[in-house]
Structure formats: C-alpha cells, structure tokens
C-alpha cells in the first residue's frame, strides 16, 4: 500500500491540542520532544525542514553529543508512534535532501484549511467573506498546541499562529459590524477584550457595537476601562483611533466601522 493510501483518511489538527485522527479513531500522539518534532513538521507541511533547523528547534544551545544521531532517533520514535496507530503510517515522515517532511496532502492539516478559507481574496460581498472566516475559525478547537509546549514552539511558531487567528477574528467582527449585526456581537467582543486586554482593535469594535446599539454609557465605560488599564499597566495612552472614537461618541455623532 502506498503512502498516499495509508494516510488518505488522516486528519491532523494543530489549532488546539495536537490531534491525529484516522476517520473517527483518535491516535495517541507523541509527547515531549517527539511531539514538538511532529508539530513542527505539521505546521510546515509541504516544506522540507532542514536537519539544522530541527536540531536548533529541539535542543537550542543545549545540544546532545551527537545531534544528528539524536534527531534520527527522535524521527524513528515518531514513525514508530504513527505505526502503532496504523501499520505503515510512519512512512509519511520522509527524509529528503538535508531534512525531513511530511508526505501528506497539505489540506490534511487543519492549519492549511484555515488559511485557505481566511486568506481568500476579499469576496465581492461582506456576507460571503464573513462566512468564509466563520468556517475558518470554526476549525479552532482550543489553545494552539497547548499539550506540546516547548521553547521551539513558543519562541515564534505559536505566537505567529495565534496572531493569524486574532487577525481573522478582527476581520470577521469588522465584516459583521458592516452587516449591521452589532447587537449580536457585543457578548463575543466582551469575551475577546477580557481575554486579549491590550488588543485595541477589539475595544474599538466593542465600543462601536455598544454605541450603535444605543448603549452610549456602556461604550464610554469601555473606553475608560481600556484607558485606565493601558495607563496603569503599560504606561501608554490609548491609540489615536480609540481616542477619536471616544470623542465622536461624546459628540453623539455617527460612528463608522472600527
């Protein structure tokens, strides 16, 4: 059986805890550095990750005595773990010229499906684009790779992925506001500003939704809250957009989409 046939029903998920599914069967995923190794290959699916980069991400400055041999041992353990889920599945971890890659279709990884939906060219209609983003964000199933944390992932991989998700959330909220769904968004945006306190775009959107829902007092209260927290905890003033929005609300003038 070819690699493609062995892995044709494999579903890989990194937009939350690391998960591998064969149909309805959830496989036991590698842990520790083996899990980190697999996560890196999944995030970089479709690319050859060089041996040097893998060694650097797995060990940093704390190198084993024989780094390349140690990496090969880790690769073997990942392959063995996959084989326990289905005989031959470990073949998808393929060695190439100077590195390793996963021999699967990129769309078998939820991150790639997310990007295909979220990064489509802006649709002709806001409703269509908002639906694409809703579908993309529906693929998120928890905190990104929360069960395989390590310096190799936390340095730039996870923060970069989290930023992608936040930009998609901001864009969807912007589109929903343009569609007149400001009342429905208030609860969601309150949750977002609670979780991402210093993400000023969410505060802009929350204030806009409150004001357009005839809740001017609450919109002003939201501004005073982020103003206080930014000054006390970060030592900066709110951004110009927030200050301008605050002034427009005080003047009781029309508020455009933030």
Descriptive keywords:
58% helix; 6 strands; 12 helices; OmpR/PhoB-type_DNA-bd; Serine Threonine Protein Phosphatase 5, Tetratricopeptide repeat; Arc Repressor Mutant, subunit A; 258 residues; elongated; DNA-binding; AfsR/SARP family transcriptional regulator; three-stranded antiparallel β-sheet; mainly alpha
β-sheet strand percentage = 5-15%
- CATH first level of the largest domain: which class? Mainly Alpha
Summed over residues and divided by their number, the pLDDT gives a mean of 92
**Order of helices and strands, N to C?**
HEEEHEHHEEHHHHHHHH
Summed up, the helix count is 12
CATH topology-level fold name of the largest domain = Arc Repressor Mutant, subunit A
| Rg calculated over all Cα atoms | 23 Å
* Helix content estimate: 55-70%
SSE class: mainly alpha
What is the spatial order of strands in the main beta sheet? 1-2-3
- Biggest sheet features: 3 strands, antiparallel
Termini, distance in Å? 54 Å
CATH architecture of the largest domain: Orthogonal Bundle
CATH superfamily caption of the largest domain: Winged helix-like DNA-binding domain superfamily/Winged helix DNA-binding domain
Spans of at least 5 consecutive residues whose pLDDT stays below 50 are none
Total count of strands: 6
Tally of distinct domains: 2
Q: Can you tell me the overall shape?
A: elongated
Task: Tell me about this structure.
The chain is mostly helical. α6 packs antiparallel against α8, α8 packs parallel to α10 and α9 runs antiparallel to α10. It folds into 2 domains: 106 residues, Arc Repressor Mutant, subunit A, CATH 1.10.10.10; 77 residues, Tetratricopeptide repeat domain (Serine Threonine Protein Phosphatase 5, Tetratricopeptide repeat, Alpha Horseshoe).
């Amino acid at each position: 059986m070819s690699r493609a046939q062995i892995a044709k029903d494999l579903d890989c998920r990194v937009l939350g805890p690391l998960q591998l599914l064969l149909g309805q069967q959830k496989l036991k995923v590698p842990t520790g550095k083996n899990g980190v190794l697999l996560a890196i290959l999944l995030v970089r699916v479709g690319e050859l990750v060089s041996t040097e980069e893998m060694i650097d991400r797995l060990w940093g400055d704390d190198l084993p005595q024989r780094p390349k041999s140690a990496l090969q041992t880790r690769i073997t353990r990942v392959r063995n773990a996959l084989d326990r889920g289905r005989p031959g599945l470990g073949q998808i971890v393929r060695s190439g010229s100077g590195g390793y890659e996963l021999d699967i279709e990129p769309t078998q990884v939820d991150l790639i499906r997310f990007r295909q939906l979220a990064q489509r060219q802006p649709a002709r209609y806001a409703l269509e684009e908002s639906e694409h983003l809703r579908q993309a964000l529906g693929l998120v199933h928890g905190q990104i790779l929360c069960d395989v944390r390590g310096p190799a992932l936390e340095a730039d991989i996870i923060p970069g992925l989290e930023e992608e998700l936040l930009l998609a959330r901001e864009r969807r909220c912007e589109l929903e506001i343009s569609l007149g769904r400001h009342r429905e968004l208030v609860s969601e945006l309150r949750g977002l500003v609670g979780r991402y306190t210093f993400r000023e775009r969410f505060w802009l959107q929350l204030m806009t939704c409150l004001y357009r829902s005839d809740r001017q007092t609450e919109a002003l209260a939201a501004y005073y809250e982020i103003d206080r927290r930014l000054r006390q905890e970060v030592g900066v003033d709110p951004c110009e957009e927030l200050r301008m929005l605050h002034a427009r609300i005080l003047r009781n003038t029309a508020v455009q989409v933030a």
